[in-house]
Design a protein that fits this description.
Low-confidence stretches: 288-309
Mean pLDDT: 81
Largest sheet: 2 strands, antiparallel
Structural class: mainly alpha
Number of helices: 11
Strand content: under 5%
Strand order of the largest sheet: 1-2
Number of strands: 2
Helix content: 55-70%
Order of helices and strands: HHHHHHHHEEHHH
Length: about 300
């Protein structure tokens, strides 16, 4: 995450390494998983597709059943669930720290004033999410987990990714973005990145959204069909992270000067640039001394107007 990297960290290298490592790990895991599924299918005399369709049932029912039939079954079971724990922790740490760091940057005058404040805030956030997760461990938890997992991981991620591509490359501008990267890495991204960021990636995400909507079917769990109120709850979960983006634009239109206020709010301020003075080079080397502080008390609002990066 950017909050924990040096200013000149080679983020381009990281952006290439992460997907390659991720895909490589998935391919390797596929060999391991389908070898066990093939064994289970052979034992039952059915096709692999009839053993399991994925999700929690694959992890906690079918796969442990296959491990139980292997030599030294307890050892393989311990290794398997230790792997699951490490995967869960690694994902949880990155997801939670992304949320926590964003909020702490937004209210840095309070949450970063003392180390104890940051620790207490992290404990409070983790405890709240722990309470929210308890219903998923109850008797009906699998039904709730399935509906949350189905609706939170599809359309919201696609729409947020699409809005992000548009905001960075078309609103902020690819030219400015490329100059910022050049200031950090020493060179601008080549034409490949310009084409993919400005055209191919948004087009693919938009196409994926359209096809996903075309192929949509109500979520089920095995033979169980969710009632209407549960499906409505799922769509509310799905729509919240999507609607909040155009909703914020509406707030800017209504309370901050209408269209002119919106146009002003989507342009970088004159004091926009690296937070540390030693990193303010090039077009950021001479900030306007007459610019007013970002918000009351002189503190920068990182999340709303992106005063610094």
């Amino acid at each position: 995450m950017a909050s924990f990297n040096k200013f000149n960290n080679n983020c381009l290298r990281d952006a290439l390494l992460v997907p390659f490592i991720n895909c490589g790990t998935s391919i390797y895991s596929g060999f391991v998983i389908f070898s066990v599924l093939g064994f289970m299918a052979h034992e039952r005399g059915v096709d692999v597709k009839d053993v399991a369709t994925g999700g929690p049932g694959l992890t906690f029912v079918v796969y442990p059943e296959g491990l139980a039939k292997m030599p030294a079954a307890p050892m393989w079971a311990i290794l398997f669930f230790f792997m699951m724990i490490t995967l869960g922790f690694s994902s949880q740490f990155s997801i939670m720290e992304t949320v926590i760091s964003s909020i702490m940057d937004e209210f840095s005058d309070v949450l970063r004033a003392k180390k104890l404040n940051g620790y207490l805030f992290r404990i409070a956030v983790c405890f709240v999410f722990f309470l929210l997760g308890i219903p998923m461990t109850l008797k009906s938890g699998l039904y709730l987990l399935n509906i949350v997992d189905t609706y939170v991981g599809g359309f919201p991620l696609l729409f947020v990714g699409l809005f992000e591509c548009i905001a960075i490359n078309w609103v902020y501008g690819y030219g400015r973005f490329a100059e910022d990267i050049s200031m950090m890495l020493g060179s601008k991204p080549n034409i490949y990145w310009k084409v993919t960021w400005c055209g191919i990636s948004p087009f693919i995400m938009l196409g994926t959204i359209v096809f996903k909507a075309w192929q949509y079917e109500d979520v089920t769990l095995g033979s169980y069909h969710y009632p209407g109120w549960a499906l409505a709850l799922g769509w509310l979960i799905c729509l919240f992270p999507i609607v909040i983006i155009p909703g914020w634009i509406g707030v800017r239109l209504i309370f901050y000067g209408g269209l002119s206020g919106l146009q002003k709010s989507i342009k970088p301020r004159k004091d926009w640039g690296p937070a540390n003075p030693e990193n303010r080079t090039g077009r950021y080397s001479k900030p306007d001394e007459n610019m007013p502080p970002a918000y009351g008390g002189g503190h920068v609002n990182y999340a709303m107007d992106s005063e610094r990066f």
